[in-house]
Amino acid sequence: SVPPGVLPLCHQLPAWGRAARHPQRPPQSPGLPLAPRRAFSNNKILVELDESSGVATMKFKSPPVNSLSLDFLTEFCISLEKLENDRACRGVILTSAVPKIFSSGLDITEMCGKSVEHYTEFWRAVQEMWLRLYGSNMVTVAAVNGSSPAGGCLIALSCDYRIMVENPKFSIGLNEAQLGIVAPFWFKDTFVNVVGQRVAESSLQLGSLHPAPQALKIGLVDELVPEEKLQEKAAAVMAQWLALPDHARQLTKSMMRKAVLDRLLAHREEDIQHFISFISKESIQKSLRMYMEMLKKKKS
Amino acid sequence: SVPPGVLPLCHQLPAWGRAARHPQRPPQSPGLPLAPRRAFSNNKILVELDESSGVATMKFKSPPVNSLSLDFLTEFCISLEKLENDRACRGVILTSAVPKIFSSGLDITEMCGKSVEHYTEFWRAVQEMWLRLYGSNMVTVAAVNGSSPAGGCLIALSCDYRIMVENPKFSIGLNEAQLGIVAPFWFKDTFVNVVGQRVAESSLQLGSLHPAPQALKIGLVDELVPEEKLQEKAAAVMAQWLALPDHARQLTKSMMRKAVLDRLLAHREEDIQHFISFISKESIQKSLRMYMEMLKKKKS
Amino acid sequence: SVPPGVLPLCHQLPAWGRAARHPQRPPQSPGLPLAPRRAFSNNKILVELDESSGVATMKFKSPPVNSLSLDFLTEFCISLEKLENDRACRGVILTSAVPKIFSSGLDITEMCGKSVEHYTEFWRAVQEMWLRLYGSNMVTVAAVNGSSPAGGCLIALSCDYRIMVENPKFSIGLNEAQLGIVAPFWFKDTFVNVVGQRVAESSLQLGSLHPAPQALKIGLVDELVPEEKLQEKAAAVMAQWLALPDHARQLTKSMMRKAVLDRLLAHREEDIQHFISFISKESIQKSLRMYMEMLKKKKS
User: Per the residue annotation, which of B68, B70, B106, B133 is the catalytic one?
Assistant: First the structure.
């Protein structure tokens, strides 16, 4: 699936550092033949680009729960990178092809009983995903059509705008504390930027999963819509954002998010070491194994 | 209009650095003859000081739209400096004498087809205006009686309290991105201090102009009143703030705003260079020329 | 009352620095004899620990107004330290045994007509109280059953959750500016973390005391309940927080509060010097004396 040598390419400067290289994309030349929709299929994420609007959709299709495995993250980074470098693409809508779940967050199997090399590669891919998405030059809209705990919530938080299906059975939040683990500082920084310090303090300590109506109330999502209106609404919001000239919007976004992005860039290796030493603890490994066995029993 | 040599005086330490020099102003001696109102008229701003209350009003009267020209900014700084040093003055209400507009923001003619020296002088005056107003020892109340885009919004944001006429046709916001330009980092810092990071991110990227009711909802203004009640309300709010002892209030204000003021002071020359290199770009000059021609055609 | 030599023990590393030393407290061994309630009485604060739930209550009983004297602060630190080191204790509810008042804040008699040594000792104890409480590893819930100005408000702000009696006659806020004094920067930082920069700016400058309903509206307290439901509600909230594993919650709390705690730790001696030079001013001493005489007259 992923050709060897691709991932290292994925580990270059994050997108936000490249604003200067992409001054105001020129409008499509009207003389060119129209190629209205191009899809590059792969294993875990379906990417569709509508060249007439300049809007791509990244649809997570990794059943049962769109968990963020190393393969998923690698595909995510490559897909985003391709779109970022495609002059025909100005915005991305992130959504799920799996019913009832947006993404369940980091794949626990990647963190259980593996080598230090594997943990390093996995954590670097998690960082990379966030650096690229939070720092993307494109307009990013999360169309949250299912539950979105932990890393799934991080993906939504990293977008410019969050629309969620108004079903109160769907919930969203950084619930790491419920599993006995601690959200990394850059998850926390991203969360505080969205909901503020007070709400973040209690929500992170309690590992709260907020049902959609509550998520709206605390500002964790920007609006709720009925499920059948979600894609239409996401397209309308995207059109509103794309009405602005790209260059000024990109520089503005970079200015707003730079401090938080720089913090991870400055402490990236420490953050990896911290993850490894935490995840390698026997007590943590034991709880993850128990949690996985519980999930297996649930399935059967 | 402005005597030569006055502007340099205007470029000294910002007011917030002077708190220690103005310990608790003594109350007016009751034996002195009352001089209830003094007005010092000038070209662009009408300043009236009511010595009995200690409240001055700065009324912008630079038709058609109170744009922030170099002359306007220079008068603004001089007027504010005079009031700051006048023991009879403890608070200032900022409002407009021009119907339907508070201030349209920076004067585009100052940024179009001029010399580097001119750009330098202009940008320094914009910085100076903000440093003096945001760091003022006086209580500052914005009585926003008209639309207030870009630099006009910055003036309102820099006050201690914002009252706006409840007319939904009047809007306020940092709409720089709509013109293809980027709000400076200290505009952004001031905005984030008022509305928080989440609202600031989308509002700045979209260059949103918020109609009065929405401005209230996001906390961009503190209250709305009918137009005929505006001055009365501003006076009442001012009286409430002036009921507090000056010295403690001034030190508190300085403590709250110091971090953001210090950031511009530490990067002032870089900020000027950044403005010059941006505004000197042919692409930017071209869009400003087009924008100005559009405005001219509108008039005729 | 306080044995000599105890206070220095109280001046060690604040609790937040010790997270690593207290990994996940083991559940009580079921074979041990039950000691369901232990009370260690002292002069100013009644401490009760319910070992079955792991919840302690610290009840302020220093009439007439639970003012934060040096004795009160010393007891507060010692009590909190004991609970912090007691494996049977996982959470603390702070409340008042004095009707209508939670705590009136710093004891003015400690700041009036005393020696520099006394001011130093007093201010260090105020800092210590905040460092221990804001950085506590335990879950801390404020059950605010009366008015809570200044230092009383700081105690509530430093907890994880604030429940207040819904009586609009009870108010809460950092009203230092009303007395002509300035809240220290770490009072301000704690306040901003709870209500945000905009609300903090006006509230601190005006020295506002917010009646309970308004306190709820601005997020200064998390919920209001009828007086007779307060302790029950505090216990229910505590149980919800204690349902989470301690270790992850403690590390999360430390991550959220570290920046603000570190700021005082880095400037602790300067902050003491600043307090001494401020409080030693004749003008400040004079207003405090006048204020105390006013209070005495009120009583008689």
Answer: B106
